[in-house]
């Protein structure tokens, strides 16, 4: 039942104040009221619930936020309060099947139709002035892409942070299931409507069981046991491996990139699991001449909603001030703003991404070195990948990190070099700073005695004390009909300066578990199988090389 408008509570005021201070936002300009549980009819006769944040003073515009995460005080302040107390009306919609909204929660599968129906409802409201913006982070950002599949004429701008537009392509990045991210998100989300304290204690006390479940086979049984059937979507994700399946097409919003014409701000992180789609989305929109901004910070997915909020929230507010409220001049110095890590690290403004670069080529050699000269024919490296003892994950650009001992982001990955199932090749110390801006590429002369094989490749930086830290990764599930030959793999985009005296390291392995599911080596479906078979790999060093995009000498990367 729709409640009457109520003034902010003490806790809402406190949360708004804390976000203002933490994110270094400009001072609030307005108080606001909150109206709970507005009912929004969908075409299939279920109702979604929404909360309306209404400024008490002049309204600068309407911002639509559609979220599966409910309306706790902290989250609602970040998505509603910070904008409402600066003159924006915010419509905070709860996704179907969550927090009182009708229907069944099917993550990302009904967002396009629901987005259209929400806008149809907005048109009928007496407060609607015919213009709105959309805003969202992560899954909330996916809902923004959904609204852009058939952009309503009233939508004038959008801000999308750390979010995919093709969900299936993310779930199966490189052709293999992103195990830890999808499992852990499903586990936490399946418990999100429990009371706060029991939920937090339950999740924390379950970390050991999460680790055991990630190590267990078959994948579906392990998930069912831990989640007690409360995340039925997970079984669908792990079982539907053909991205051409019409089931996945409902969550493929790539066509939105061809349909949007309004200004869009895309925000991401270099260690966020969605960084590739963020940058690809920017490239396509910029290529079409859309007014698009891009910000890439140094954070992981979780950090983007915490430390990253000090950049992302002020940027979003300024973007809405310019493109929704129409107040002030253009706020961004240049379309692209990226954080360059390494010596003299900091923010750089660029006219476009990627900037001009030239490839510097490194060749792995016998003796575990990376050199300027290619290896001779006959120089090889060998290792055996055993799915029963899979190569572990050390850092990288993925989303969740609930399992003990598995950390997303930048981390010390020195231990990988000592494993017998990993090949490492390390350069001589650099004589000068090396600014790597763009996507490194690795070409690997790969052979396997087992056609069912994956490749994990990484570029790391080794300091003078011998500590190694990840910089960029790539992963691919190889075509079993072609397990032998040169594999060309583009690693994650980066903006990083290698310090003088440090060294580059190439890491080659057959997996990274539990970030990705292990390749069982049998061709069996990991969702239902437990049978495993090792694979022995032979790397032809004479046809293997690393192409590193180095900033053009005239470009100020460092």
From TrEMBL:
InterPro entries: AB_hydrolase_fold, CocE/Ser_esterase, Galactose-bd-like_sf, Xaa-Pro-like_dom, Xaa-Pro_dipept_C. One of its GO terms (molecular function) is dipeptidyl-peptidase activity. Gene3D superfamilies: alpha-amino acid ester hydrolase ( Helical cap domain), alpha/beta hydrolase, Galactose-binding domain-like. This is CocE/NonD family hydrolase. It holds the Pfam family Peptidase_S15. Residues 317-547 form the Xaa-Pro dipeptidyl-peptidase C-terminal domain. It comes from the Bacteria.
